[in-house]
Amino acid sequence: MLSGFGWLANLIVYLVQEFNVESINATQIANVVHGCINLLPVLGAIIADSFLGSFHVAAISSFISFLGMILLILTAKLSSLKPPPCEIGSSFCRAPSKLQYVVLYLSITTASAGLGGSRYTLATLGANQLDKPKDKETFFNWFFFTVNASSIISSTAIVYVEDSISWVLGYTICFAANLIALAVFLAGQRFYRCDKPQGSPFTGLLRVVVAAVRKRKVLLSSRSEDYYHEHRETSKVMPVTANGWFRFLNRAAMKTEGDIDSDGLIARPWKLCSLEQVGNLRTVIRLVPIWSSGIFLITPVAIQSSIAVTQALSMDRHLGSNFKIPAASIIVVILVSSSFFVALFDRFVFPTWQKLTGRPLTLLQRIGIGHVIIVLSMAISAMVESKRLKTIHDNKLEALPGAIVPMQVWWLFPQLVVIGIGDAFHFPGQIAFYYHEFPASLRSIATAMVSLAVGIAFYVSTALVELIRRLTGWLPGNINSGRLDNLYWILVTAGALNFMYFLVCAKLYKCRNIEKEVDANSGFDI
Protein backbone atom coordinates (compact mmCIF):
# COMPACT_ATOMS: atom_id res chain seq x y z
CA MET A 1 0.00 0.00 0.00
CA LEU A 2 2.84 2.37 0.86
CA SER A 3 4.37 1.87 -2.56
CA GLY A 4 1.11 2.29 -4.48
CA PHE A 5 -0.09 5.37 -2.67
CA GLY A 6 3.38 6.92 -2.96
CA TRP A 7 2.96 7.55 -6.68
CA LEU A 8 -0.84 7.74 -6.75
CA ALA A 9 -1.13 10.54 -4.17
CA ASN A 10 1.04 12.88 -6.25
CA LEU A 11 -0.14 11.86 -9.71
CA ILE A 12 -1.97 15.12 -10.50
CA VAL A 13 1.08 17.21 -9.62
CA TYR A 14 3.34 14.87 -11.62
CA LEU A 15 1.14 15.25 -14.70
CA VAL A 16 0.91 19.05 -14.37
CA GLN A 17 4.55 19.79 -13.57
CA GLU A 18 6.39 17.07 -15.49
CA PHE A 19 4.10 16.42 -18.47
CA ASN A 20 2.51 19.89 -18.88
CA VAL A 21 -1.07 18.63 -18.52
CA GLU A 22 -3.75 21.23 -17.66
CA SER A 23 -4.99 20.99 -14.07
CA ILE A 24 -8.58 19.95 -14.82
CA ASN A 25 -7.38 17.43 -17.43
CA ALA A 26 -4.90 16.04 -14.90
CA THR A 27 -7.75 15.72 -12.43
CA GLN A 28 -9.79 13.80 -14.99
CA ILE A 29 -6.87 11.45 -15.71
CA ALA A 30 -6.37 10.88 -11.99
CA ASN A 31 -10.07 10.05 -11.60
CA VAL A 32 -9.83 7.47 -14.39
CA VAL A 33 -6.75 5.93 -12.73
CA HIS A 34 -8.53 5.80 -9.37
CA GLY A 35 -11.48 4.18 -11.10
CA CYS A 36 -9.27 1.48 -12.63
CA ILE A 37 -7.55 0.79 -9.32
CA ASN A 38 -10.90 0.31 -7.63
CA LEU A 39 -12.45 -1.82 -10.40
CA LEU A 40 -9.52 -4.21 -10.66
CA PRO A 41 -10.09 -5.72 -7.17
CA VAL A 42 -13.31 -7.21 -8.52
CA LEU A 43 -11.37 -9.03 -11.25
CA GLY A 44 -8.82 -10.07 -8.65
CA ALA A 45 -11.58 -11.35 -6.37
CA ILE A 46 -13.15 -13.39 -9.18
CA ILE A 47 -9.80 -14.96 -10.01
CA ALA A 48 -9.16 -15.62 -6.30
CA ASP A 49 -12.54 -17.27 -5.72
CA SER A 50 -12.52 -19.22 -8.97
CA PHE A 51 -8.94 -20.27 -9.69
CA LEU A 52 -5.96 -19.15 -7.62
CA GLY A 53 -7.05 -18.19 -4.11
CA SER A 54 -6.47 -14.88 -2.32
CA PHE A 55 -2.80 -15.49 -1.47
CA HIS A 56 -1.64 -16.12 -5.03
CA VAL A 57 -3.64 -13.21 -6.46
CA ALA A 58 -2.11 -10.83 -3.90
CA ALA A 59 1.40 -12.13 -4.63
CA ILE A 60 1.06 -11.84 -8.42
CA SER A 61 -0.48 -8.36 -8.13
CA SER A 62 2.42 -7.19 -5.96
CA PHE A 63 4.87 -8.38 -8.61
CA ILE A 64 2.98 -6.53 -11.34
CA SER A 65 3.10 -3.39 -9.19
CA PHE A 66 6.86 -3.94 -8.89
CA LEU A 67 7.19 -3.83 -12.70
CA GLY A 68 5.02 -0.70 -12.87
CA MET A 69 7.30 1.14 -10.46
CA ILE A 70 10.30 0.37 -12.68
CA LEU A 71 8.53 2.00 -15.63
CA LEU A 72 7.53 5.06 -13.56
CA ILE A 73 11.13 5.52 -12.46
CA LEU A 74 12.17 5.52 -16.12
CA THR A 75 9.60 8.22 -17.02
CA ALA A 76 11.00 10.42 -14.26
CA LYS A 77 14.67 9.65 -14.97
CA LEU A 78 14.93 9.83 -18.76
CA SER A 79 14.39 13.28 -20.29
CA SER A 80 13.48 11.66 -23.62
CA LEU A 81 10.34 10.21 -22.01
CA LYS A 82 8.83 13.58 -21.00
CA PRO A 83 8.40 17.03 -22.61
CA PRO A 84 10.62 19.99 -21.70
CA PRO A 85 9.51 21.76 -18.49
CA CYS A 86 7.51 24.98 -18.39
CA GLU A 87 5.85 27.21 -15.83
CA ILE A 88 2.39 26.21 -14.57
CA GLY A 89 -0.25 28.12 -16.55
CA SER A 90 2.11 29.19 -19.31
CA SER A 91 0.62 29.24 -22.79
CA PHE A 92 3.92 28.05 -24.33
CA CYS A 93 4.05 24.57 -22.75
CA ARG A 94 4.89 21.73 -25.13
CA ALA A 95 2.57 18.73 -24.92
CA PRO A 96 4.02 15.21 -24.59
CA SER A 97 4.66 13.25 -27.78
CA LYS A 98 2.72 10.09 -28.63
CA LEU A 99 5.63 7.91 -27.50
CA GLN A 100 5.89 9.78 -24.20
CA TYR A 101 2.16 9.35 -23.63
CA VAL A 102 2.38 5.63 -24.42
CA VAL A 103 5.19 5.02 -21.93
CA LEU A 104 3.50 7.18 -19.28
CA TYR A 105 0.14 5.44 -19.59
CA LEU A 106 1.77 1.99 -19.74
CA SER A 107 3.63 2.66 -16.49
CA ILE A 108 0.51 4.02 -14.77
CA THR A 109 -1.61 1.11 -16.03
CA THR A 110 0.87 -1.51 -14.82
CA ALA A 111 1.31 0.09 -11.41
CA SER A 112 -2.47 0.51 -11.11
CA ALA A 113 -3.09 -3.15 -11.98
CA GLY A 114 -0.74 -4.26 -9.23
CA LEU A 115 -2.21 -1.98 -6.58
CA GLY A 116 -5.80 -2.77 -7.52
CA GLY A 117 -5.32 -6.52 -7.65
CA SER A 118 -3.88 -6.82 -4.14
CA ARG A 119 -5.78 -4.16 -2.22
CA TYR A 120 -9.00 -5.90 -1.19
CA THR A 121 -7.75 -9.44 -1.76
CA LEU A 122 -5.56 -8.86 1.29
CA ALA A 123 -8.66 -7.87 3.26
CA THR A 124 -10.33 -11.18 2.42
CA LEU A 125 -7.18 -13.16 3.19
CA GLY A 126 -6.90 -11.44 6.57
CA ALA A 127 -10.55 -11.97 7.50
CA ASN A 128 -10.27 -15.65 6.59
CA GLN A 129 -7.72 -16.07 9.38
CA LEU A 130 -10.46 -15.33 11.95
CA ASP A 131 -13.55 -17.29 12.96
CA LYS A 132 -15.84 -15.01 14.98
CA PRO A 133 -17.92 -12.39 13.10
CA LYS A 134 -17.12 -9.78 15.75
CA ASP A 135 -13.38 -10.38 15.30
CA LYS A 136 -13.75 -10.02 11.54
CA GLU A 137 -15.64 -6.74 11.96
CA THR A 138 -12.83 -5.43 14.16
CA PHE A 139 -10.29 -6.62 11.59
CA PHE A 140 -11.97 -4.61 8.84
CA ASN A 141 -11.85 -1.49 11.03
CA TRP A 142 -8.10 -1.93 11.58
CA PHE A 143 -7.44 -2.94 7.98
CA PHE A 144 -9.01 0.37 6.94
CA PHE A 145 -6.88 2.10 9.59
CA THR A 146 -3.69 0.46 8.27
CA VAL A 147 -4.48 1.41 4.68
CA ASN A 148 -5.00 5.01 5.76
CA ALA A 149 -1.78 4.99 7.80
CA SER A 150 0.12 3.88 4.68
CA SER A 151 -1.58 6.61 2.70
CA ILE A 152 -0.61 9.20 5.31
CA ILE A 153 3.07 8.27 5.08
CA SER A 154 2.90 8.25 1.29
CA SER A 155 1.07 11.58 1.10
CA THR A 156 3.52 13.34 3.40
CA ALA A 157 7.01 11.87 3.45
CA ILE A 158 7.13 10.38 -0.04
CA VAL A 159 5.25 13.27 -1.66
CA TYR A 160 7.65 15.71 0.03
CA VAL A 161 10.61 13.82 -1.42
CA GLU A 162 9.01 13.87 -4.88
CA ASP A 163 8.22 17.61 -4.74
CA SER A 164 11.29 18.93 -2.91
CA ILE A 165 14.13 16.54 -3.81
CA SER A 166 13.38 14.52 -6.95
CA TRP A 167 10.69 12.39 -8.54
CA VAL A 168 13.28 9.68 -9.22
CA LEU A 169 14.15 9.33 -5.53
CA GLY A 170 10.48 9.35 -4.51
CA TYR A 171 9.60 6.62 -6.98
CA THR A 172 12.69 4.63 -5.98
CA ILE A 173 11.44 4.64 -2.37
CA CYS A 174 8.11 3.29 -3.61
CA PHE A 175 9.99 0.63 -5.58
CA ALA A 176 11.95 -0.42 -2.48
CA ALA A 177 8.80 -0.53 -0.34
CA ASN A 178 7.11 -2.74 -2.92
CA LEU A 179 10.07 -5.13 -3.01
CA ILE A 180 10.24 -5.42 0.79
CA ALA A 181 6.48 -5.91 1.14
CA LEU A 182 6.48 -8.67 -1.48
CA ALA A 183 9.39 -10.47 0.22
CA VAL A 184 7.76 -10.30 3.67
CA PHE A 185 4.39 -11.42 2.32
CA LEU A 186 5.88 -14.46 0.57
CA ALA A 187 7.95 -15.36 3.63
CA GLY A 188 4.79 -15.70 5.74
CA GLN A 189 2.99 -18.07 3.37
CA ARG A 190 3.27 -21.13 5.64
CA PHE A 191 1.52 -19.29 8.48
CA TYR A 192 -1.58 -18.29 6.50
CA ARG A 193 -4.91 -20.09 6.40
CA CYS A 194 -5.35 -19.99 2.63
CA ASP A 195 -8.75 -20.37 1.01
CA LYS A 196 -9.16 -23.00 -1.67
CA PRO A 197 -10.75 -21.88 -4.96
CA GLN A 198 -13.97 -23.73 -5.69
CA GLY A 199 -14.61 -22.73 -9.29
CA SER A 200 -16.42 -19.64 -10.49
CA PRO A 201 -19.32 -18.79 -8.15
CA PHE A 202 -20.90 -16.80 -10.98
CA THR A 203 -21.47 -20.00 -12.92
CA GLY A 204 -23.77 -21.19 -10.14
CA LEU A 205 -25.65 -17.89 -10.15
CA LEU A 206 -26.09 -18.03 -13.93
CA ARG A 207 -27.30 -21.64 -13.70
CA VAL A 208 -30.11 -20.50 -11.40
CA VAL A 209 -31.36 -17.97 -13.95
CA VAL A 210 -31.15 -20.42 -16.86
CA ALA A 211 -32.84 -23.25 -14.92
CA ALA A 212 -35.64 -20.94 -13.70
CA VAL A 213 -36.34 -19.73 -17.24
CA ARG A 214 -36.36 -23.28 -18.61
CA LYS A 215 -38.88 -24.29 -15.90
CA ARG A 216 -41.00 -21.14 -16.13
CA LYS A 217 -44.15 -23.23 -16.77
CA VAL A 218 -43.58 -25.53 -13.77
CA LEU A 219 -45.97 -24.89 -10.87
CA LEU A 220 -44.31 -24.04 -7.56
CA SER A 221 -44.77 -26.38 -4.63
CA SER A 222 -45.01 -25.55 -0.94
CA ARG A 223 -43.42 -28.86 0.08
CA SER A 224 -39.72 -28.79 0.95
CA GLU A 225 -39.11 -32.31 -0.39
CA ASP A 226 -40.10 -31.20 -3.90
CA TYR A 227 -36.97 -29.04 -4.06
CA TYR A 228 -33.35 -30.09 -4.39
CA HIS A 229 -31.15 -29.43 -1.33
CA GLU A 230 -27.40 -29.36 -1.52
CA HIS A 231 -27.25 -30.83 1.99
CA ARG A 232 -29.88 -33.49 2.64
CA GLU A 233 -30.28 -32.59 6.30
CA THR A 234 -31.43 -29.05 5.42
CA SER A 235 -34.50 -30.40 3.63
CA LYS A 236 -35.92 -31.36 7.01
CA VAL A 237 -35.38 -27.99 8.67
CA MET A 238 -35.61 -25.45 5.87
CA PRO A 239 -38.83 -23.42 6.10
CA VAL A 240 -41.19 -23.44 3.12
CA THR A 241 -43.20 -20.27 2.58
CA ALA A 242 -44.89 -18.59 -0.36
CA ASN A 243 -43.69 -15.01 0.09
CA GLY A 244 -39.94 -15.26 -0.45
CA TRP A 245 -37.97 -12.86 -2.61
CA PHE A 246 -38.16 -13.59 -6.34
CA ARG A 247 -40.28 -16.72 -6.04
CA PHE A 248 -39.86 -17.21 -9.77
CA LEU A 249 -36.25 -18.28 -9.17
CA ASN A 250 -37.39 -21.12 -6.92
CA ARG A 251 -38.38 -23.05 -10.05
CA ALA A 252 -34.65 -23.63 -10.61
CA ALA A 253 -34.66 -25.94 -7.56
CA MET A 254 -37.90 -27.78 -8.38
CA LYS A 255 -37.18 -31.46 -9.03
CA THR A 256 -38.67 -32.81 -12.27
CA GLU A 257 -38.22 -36.07 -14.12
CA GLY A 258 -34.65 -36.68 -15.27
CA ASP A 259 -33.10 -33.92 -13.16
CA ILE A 260 -31.45 -36.29 -10.62
CA ASP A 261 -29.34 -39.37 -11.36
CA SER A 262 -29.37 -42.68 -9.48
CA ASP A 263 -26.85 -41.38 -6.90
CA GLY A 264 -29.12 -38.51 -5.93
CA LEU A 265 -26.88 -35.94 -7.59
CA ILE A 266 -27.83 -33.34 -10.20
CA ALA A 267 -27.88 -34.91 -13.64
CA ARG A 268 -28.68 -31.74 -15.59
CA PRO A 269 -26.89 -28.79 -13.87
CA TRP A 270 -28.38 -26.19 -16.25
CA LYS A 271 -31.91 -27.36 -15.47
CA LEU A 272 -31.72 -28.06 -11.72
CA CYS A 273 -29.99 -26.10 -8.95
CA SER A 274 -30.02 -26.41 -5.19
CA LEU A 275 -32.08 -24.17 -2.94
CA GLU A 276 -28.81 -22.88 -1.52
CA GLN A 277 -27.75 -21.62 -4.95
CA VAL A 278 -31.14 -19.99 -5.43
CA GLY A 279 -30.75 -18.30 -2.05
CA ASN A 280 -27.27 -17.06 -3.00
CA LEU A 281 -28.61 -15.34 -6.10
CA ARG A 282 -31.50 -13.77 -4.20
CA THR A 283 -29.09 -12.44 -1.59
CA VAL A 284 -26.93 -10.80 -4.27
CA ILE A 285 -29.98 -9.25 -5.97
CA ARG A 286 -31.31 -7.90 -2.67
CA LEU A 287 -27.96 -6.22 -1.96
CA VAL A 288 -27.75 -4.38 -5.29
CA PRO A 289 -29.95 -1.36 -4.31
CA ILE A 290 -27.96 -0.66 -1.13
CA TRP A 291 -24.71 -1.14 -3.02
CA SER A 292 -25.80 1.25 -5.78
CA SER A 293 -26.41 3.99 -3.20
CA GLY A 294 -22.75 3.63 -2.25
CA ILE A 295 -21.71 4.66 -5.75
CA PHE A 296 -23.38 8.06 -5.41
CA LEU A 297 -22.13 8.37 -1.83
CA ILE A 298 -18.51 8.11 -3.01
CA THR A 299 -18.89 10.17 -6.21
CA PRO A 300 -18.75 13.60 -4.50
CA VAL A 301 -15.77 12.47 -2.40
CA ALA A 302 -13.97 11.39 -5.59
CA ILE A 303 -14.58 14.80 -7.15
CA GLN A 304 -13.58 16.71 -4.05
CA SER A 305 -10.39 14.77 -3.30
CA SER A 306 -9.08 15.49 -6.81
CA ILE A 307 -10.20 19.10 -7.07
CA ALA A 308 -8.83 19.88 -3.58
CA VAL A 309 -5.32 19.26 -4.96
CA THR A 310 -5.86 21.74 -7.80
CA GLN A 311 -7.29 24.24 -5.30
CA ALA A 312 -4.23 23.80 -3.09
CA LEU A 313 -1.93 24.48 -6.06
CA SER A 314 -3.47 27.96 -6.35
CA MET A 315 -3.39 28.78 -2.60
CA ASP A 316 -0.71 29.89 -0.14
CA ARG A 317 0.85 26.65 1.14
CA HIS A 318 3.75 28.11 3.11
CA LEU A 319 4.35 26.86 6.62
CA GLY A 320 6.79 29.41 7.95
CA SER A 321 9.30 31.07 5.63
CA ASN A 322 11.20 27.99 4.44
CA PHE A 323 8.70 25.14 4.17
CA LYS A 324 5.97 24.77 1.56
CA ILE A 325 3.34 22.06 1.92
CA PRO A 326 3.14 19.85 -1.20
CA ALA A 327 -0.26 20.27 -2.85
CA ALA A 328 -0.87 16.52 -2.99
CA SER A 329 -0.30 16.26 0.77
CA ILE A 330 -3.55 18.15 1.39
CA ILE A 331 -5.39 14.83 1.03
CA VAL A 332 -3.54 13.52 4.08
CA VAL A 333 -6.03 15.52 6.16
CA ILE A 334 -8.76 13.09 5.08
CA LEU A 335 -6.55 10.12 5.89
CA VAL A 336 -5.52 11.38 9.33
CA SER A 337 -9.11 12.26 10.15
CA SER A 338 -10.53 8.91 9.05
CA SER A 339 -7.73 6.92 10.76
CA PHE A 340 -8.22 8.80 14.03
CA PHE A 341 -11.98 8.44 14.02
CA VAL A 342 -11.90 4.76 12.99
CA ALA A 343 -9.83 4.05 16.09
CA LEU A 344 -11.98 6.35 18.24
CA PHE A 345 -15.22 4.76 17.06
CA ASP A 346 -13.97 1.19 17.43
CA ARG A 347 -12.50 1.61 20.92
CA PHE A 348 -14.77 4.20 22.51
CA VAL A 349 -17.82 5.47 20.61
CA PHE A 350 -19.35 2.15 19.49
CA PRO A 351 -18.80 0.36 22.85
CA THR A 352 -20.19 3.39 24.72
CA TRP A 353 -23.23 3.49 22.44
CA GLN A 354 -23.89 -0.19 23.13
CA LYS A 355 -23.63 0.31 26.90
CA LEU A 356 -26.00 3.28 26.84
CA THR A 357 -28.62 1.82 24.49
CA GLY A 358 -28.24 -1.89 25.17
CA ARG A 359 -27.66 -2.72 21.51
CA PRO A 360 -24.87 -2.04 19.02
CA LEU A 361 -24.98 0.48 16.21
CA THR A 362 -25.82 -1.65 13.17
CA LEU A 363 -23.69 -1.63 10.03
CA LEU A 364 -26.49 -0.01 8.01
CA GLN A 365 -26.82 2.73 10.64
CA ARG A 366 -23.10 3.44 10.39
CA ILE A 367 -23.36 3.69 6.61
CA GLY A 368 -26.36 6.02 6.91
CA ILE A 369 -24.51 8.34 9.29
CA GLY A 370 -21.67 8.40 6.75
CA HIS A 371 -24.14 9.58 4.09
CA VAL A 372 -25.22 12.55 6.20
CA ILE A 373 -21.67 13.59 7.08
CA ILE A 374 -20.50 13.45 3.45
CA VAL A 375 -23.36 15.74 2.40
CA LEU A 376 -22.35 18.15 5.17
CA SER A 377 -18.75 18.15 3.87
CA MET A 378 -19.96 19.16 0.41
CA ALA A 379 -21.85 22.12 1.87
CA ILE A 380 -18.73 23.23 3.74
CA SER A 381 -16.70 22.86 0.51
CA ALA A 382 -19.12 25.12 -1.36
CA MET A 383 -18.87 27.85 1.28
CA VAL A 384 -15.05 27.69 1.41
CA GLU A 385 -14.83 27.87 -2.38
CA SER A 386 -17.10 30.92 -2.36
CA LYS A 387 -14.65 32.54 0.05
CA ARG A 388 -11.71 31.63 -2.23
CA LEU A 389 -13.44 33.07 -5.32
CA LYS A 390 -14.25 36.28 -3.47
CA THR A 391 -10.57 36.64 -2.53
CA ILE A 392 -9.62 36.10 -6.18
CA HIS A 393 -12.12 38.74 -7.31
CA ASP A 394 -10.95 41.24 -4.70
CA ASN A 395 -7.35 40.84 -5.89
CA LYS A 396 -8.27 40.76 -9.61
CA LEU A 397 -6.57 37.39 -10.24
CA GLU A 398 -9.21 35.82 -12.47
CA ALA A 399 -7.28 36.28 -15.72
CA LEU A 400 -3.90 35.13 -14.39
CA PRO A 401 -3.35 31.38 -14.88
CA GLY A 402 -1.21 29.86 -12.15
CA ALA A 403 -1.62 32.88 -9.85
CA ILE A 404 -1.36 32.15 -6.12
CA VAL A 405 -4.41 33.34 -4.20
CA PRO A 406 -3.57 35.21 -0.96
CA MET A 407 -5.53 32.70 1.08
CA GLN A 408 -4.08 30.05 3.38
CA VAL A 409 -4.51 26.41 2.38
CA TRP A 410 -5.77 25.76 5.94
CA TRP A 411 -9.20 26.90 4.74
CA LEU A 412 -9.56 23.53 3.01
CA PHE A 413 -8.98 21.57 6.20
CA PRO A 414 -12.51 21.64 7.75
CA GLN A 415 -14.20 20.05 4.73
CA LEU A 416 -11.47 17.39 4.49
CA VAL A 417 -11.71 16.55 8.20
CA VAL A 418 -15.47 16.11 7.87
CA ILE A 419 -14.96 13.81 4.86
CA GLY A 420 -12.60 11.73 7.00
CA ILE A 421 -15.27 11.37 9.69
CA GLY A 422 -17.80 10.26 7.10
CA ASP A 423 -15.34 7.75 5.64
CA ALA A 424 -14.68 6.35 9.12
CA PHE A 425 -18.38 5.56 9.41
CA HIS A 426 -19.26 4.21 5.99
CA PHE A 427 -16.13 2.52 4.58
CA PRO A 428 -15.51 -0.07 7.33
CA GLY A 429 -19.28 -0.41 7.69
CA GLN A 430 -19.74 -1.24 4.01
CA ILE A 431 -16.87 -3.75 3.88
CA ALA A 432 -18.12 -5.59 6.98
CA PHE A 433 -21.74 -5.42 5.77
CA TYR A 434 -21.05 -7.04 2.40
CA TYR A 435 -18.69 -9.62 3.92
CA HIS A 436 -21.39 -10.72 6.38
CA GLU A 437 -24.31 -10.59 3.95
CA PHE A 438 -22.79 -12.19 0.86
CA PRO A 439 -22.87 -15.99 0.45
CA ALA A 440 -19.75 -17.76 1.74
CA SER A 441 -18.74 -18.73 -1.81
CA LEU A 442 -18.58 -15.04 -2.75
CA ARG A 443 -16.57 -13.71 0.18
CA SER A 444 -13.72 -12.30 -1.94
CA ILE A 445 -16.29 -10.60 -4.16
CA ALA A 446 -17.99 -9.24 -1.04
CA THR A 447 -14.97 -7.25 0.16
CA ALA A 448 -14.38 -6.05 -3.41
CA MET A 449 -17.92 -4.67 -3.69
CA VAL A 450 -16.89 -1.44 -1.97
CA SER A 451 -13.93 -1.17 -4.30
CA LEU A 452 -16.24 -1.72 -7.27
CA ALA A 453 -18.52 1.07 -6.04
CA VAL A 454 -15.48 3.36 -5.60
CA GLY A 455 -14.24 2.54 -9.09
CA ILE A 456 -17.58 3.26 -10.70
CA ALA A 457 -17.89 6.41 -8.59
CA PHE A 458 -14.62 7.76 -10.00
CA TYR A 459 -15.86 7.15 -13.55
CA VAL A 460 -19.20 8.76 -12.70
CA SER A 461 -17.34 11.73 -11.23
CA THR A 462 -15.24 12.02 -14.39
CA ALA A 463 -18.36 11.94 -16.58
CA LEU A 464 -20.17 14.43 -14.33
CA VAL A 465 -17.28 16.90 -14.35
CA GLU A 466 -16.97 16.59 -18.13
CA LEU A 467 -20.71 17.12 -18.56
CA ILE A 468 -20.64 20.25 -16.41
CA ARG A 469 -17.60 21.51 -18.35
CA ARG A 470 -19.50 21.15 -21.61
CA LEU A 471 -22.79 22.64 -20.42
CA THR A 472 -21.45 25.48 -18.26
CA GLY A 473 -18.42 27.70 -17.90
CA TRP A 474 -17.86 26.71 -14.29
CA LEU A 475 -14.78 24.51 -14.82
CA PRO A 476 -12.28 26.19 -17.19
CA GLY A 477 -8.61 25.22 -17.43
CA ASN A 478 -7.89 28.06 -14.99
CA ILE A 479 -9.99 27.26 -11.91
CA ASN A 480 -9.45 30.80 -10.58
CA SER A 481 -11.89 32.03 -13.23
CA GLY A 482 -14.39 29.20 -12.66
CA ARG A 483 -17.29 28.49 -10.29
CA LEU A 484 -16.40 25.36 -8.34
CA ASP A 485 -18.84 26.42 -5.64
CA ASN A 486 -21.77 25.73 -7.96
CA LEU A 487 -20.43 22.22 -8.57
CA TYR A 488 -20.32 21.58 -4.83
CA TRP A 489 -23.91 22.76 -4.36
CA ILE A 490 -25.01 20.32 -7.07
CA LEU A 491 -23.24 17.57 -5.11
CA VAL A 492 -25.06 18.62 -1.93
CA THR A 493 -28.42 18.25 -3.66
CA ALA A 494 -27.49 14.93 -5.25
CA GLY A 495 -26.14 13.63 -1.94
CA ALA A 496 -29.34 14.49 -0.09
CA LEU A 497 -31.45 12.69 -2.70
CA ASN A 498 -29.13 9.68 -2.57
CA PHE A 499 -29.44 9.54 1.22
CA MET A 500 -33.21 9.32 0.96
CA TYR A 501 -32.80 6.53 -1.59
CA PHE A 502 -30.48 4.70 0.83
CA LEU A 503 -33.01 5.02 3.65
CA VAL A 504 -35.68 3.36 1.50
CA CYS A 505 -33.30 0.54 0.50
CA ALA A 506 -32.15 -0.02 4.07
CA LYS A 507 -35.74 -0.05 5.34
CA LEU A 508 -36.69 -2.78 2.87
CA TYR A 509 -33.59 -4.89 3.47
CA LYS A 510 -33.54 -7.60 6.14
CA CYS A 511 -30.06 -8.46 7.39
CA ARG A 512 -28.93 -11.99 8.14
CA ASN A 513 -28.37 -12.81 11.81
CA ILE A 514 -24.69 -13.66 11.55
CA GLU A 515 -24.29 -14.42 15.23
CA LYS A 516 -26.96 -17.13 15.31
CA GLU A 517 -26.49 -18.43 11.81
CA VAL A 518 -25.06 -21.95 11.88
CA ASP A 519 -24.96 -22.70 8.21
CA ALA A 520 -24.34 -19.78 5.87
CA ASN A 521 -26.19 -21.57 3.11
CA SER A 522 -29.35 -22.56 4.99
CA GLY A 523 -32.59 -20.89 5.98
CA PHE A 524 -33.66 -19.30 2.70
CA ASP A 525 -37.34 -18.84 2.17
CA ILE A 526 -39.01 -20.65 -0.68
From TrEMBL:
Oxidoreductase listed as a keyword: no
GO MF assignments: transmembrane transporter activity
Keyword field: Membrane, Transmembrane, Transmembrane helix
Gene3D superfamilies: MFS general substrate transporter like domains
Membrane-topology annotation of the record: Multi-pass membrane protein
GO annotation, cellular component aspect: membrane
Source domain of life: Eukaryota
Subcellular location: Membrane
Spans through the membrane: 51-74, 139-161, 167-188, 284-303, 323-345, 366-384, 404-425, 445-468, 488-509
Main location: membrane
Family per record: Belongs to the major facilitator superfamily. Proton-dependent oligopeptide transporter (POT/PTR) (TC 2.A.17) family.
Name of this protein: Protein NRT1/ PTR FAMILY 2.7-like
Organism from which the protein derives: Gossypium aridum
